[in-house]
Write a structure and sequence with these properties.
Elements (H helix, E strand, L loop, with lengths): L4 H4 L1 E5 L6 E5 L6 E3 L6 E3 L10 E2 L10 E5 L6 E5 L6 E3 L6 E3 L38 E4 L5 E4 L6 E3 L20 H22 L5 H14 L9 H25 L1
Parallel strand pairs: 1-5
Antiparallel strand pairs: 1-2, 3-4, 6-7, 8-9, 10-11, 11-12
Helix pairs in contact: 2-3, 2-4, 3-4
Length: 255
């Protein structure tokens, strides 16, 4: 009787601790898995040529480095560690499938995650965790006819138009979900405020005012969202005010 495709892609490994058999897939070679019997961590060995059960390898005991990267579909901020690099992962927000990126040797920064071939780039669910099944925010209708959002993390009830849980801060919508783009915009907004304060003190030098204005513009010029960072507007305003003061100062000095 010929082997099925699933049988050809799977083989048996033996746990190093309890010696019980575990069914593994050929695609898992080199991955670290957990024994379903004794819950010890094992590394999947190479597929044996003779098809016999083979003992699992010892797990990698080297220190693992945690890092953040962006989902290639919805841009949500995700966290992983070096022990998962190259493994298949699923975004908890939009259910996109991708391989966890590797870290670059010199810079230590992660490569850009790439969607698995065949995965559509869009659309993205409107609600954060909208693709997480029972873990997604649930809309509950009360006896009086009003509706509330039940948080999947703490079960607290929130107004139907809430973007985040008022009790634990879990995001309900993509507007509230942490994304890499939002993180960069927040950094620019904070730096624009810092530069704006310096520019107001050193308004006659002009340069800090130009930098504060530039960083403020970069933080508020976001076409992907209707929400603009307040700090970005504050930094932009201080930069423009500093530039106006610097121009007036030099005008009267050179007059």
């Amino acid at each position: 009787m010929p082997e099925t495709r699933e049988q050809a892609e799977s083989f048996t490994i033996l746990c190093r601790r309890c010696d019980r058999p575990i069914i593994a897939r050929a695609a898992w070679v080199g991955w670290e898995v957990q024994c379903p019997h004794c819950f010890s961590i094992l590394r999947v060995p190479e597929v044996p040529a003779d098809g016999r059960p083979v003992q699992a390898d010892a797990p990698n005991l080297s220190a693992r480095l945690c890092f953040n990267f962006a989902c290639p579909r919805c841009d949500c901020l995700l966290e992983s560690h070096t022990g998962m690099c190259g493994q298949l992962a699923i975004c908890p927000t939009c259910a996109a499938r991708f391989n966890v990126p590797y870290l670059r040797g010199k810079s230590g920064r992660p490569d850009k995650a790439v969607l698995i071939e065949g995965e559509a780039g869009y659309p993205t669910p409107v609600h954060a965790y909208g693709a997480s099944g029972h873990r997604a925010p649930q809309i509950i209708r009360r006896d009086d006819g009003t509706s509330v959002i039940e948080c999947p993390r703490c079960n607290a009830h929130n107004p139907i138009d809430a973007d985040t849980c008022g009790a634990c801060g879990a995001p309900f919508t993509m507007e509230a979900a942490a994304t890499v783009g939002k993180m960069y915009r927040d950094r620019r907004a904070s730096s624009s405020v810092t530069l704006g304060v310096v520019a107001l003190i050193l308004f006659f030098t002009i340069i800090p005012g130009l930098l504060a204005t530039w960083q403020g513009l970069r933080s508020v010029m976001n076409t992907e969202s209707s929400r603009r960072p307040v700090l970005g507007f504050i930094g932009l305003g201080m930069g423009v005010l500093s530039l106006a003061g610097g121009i007036a100062y030099w005008y009267w000095q050179l007059k």
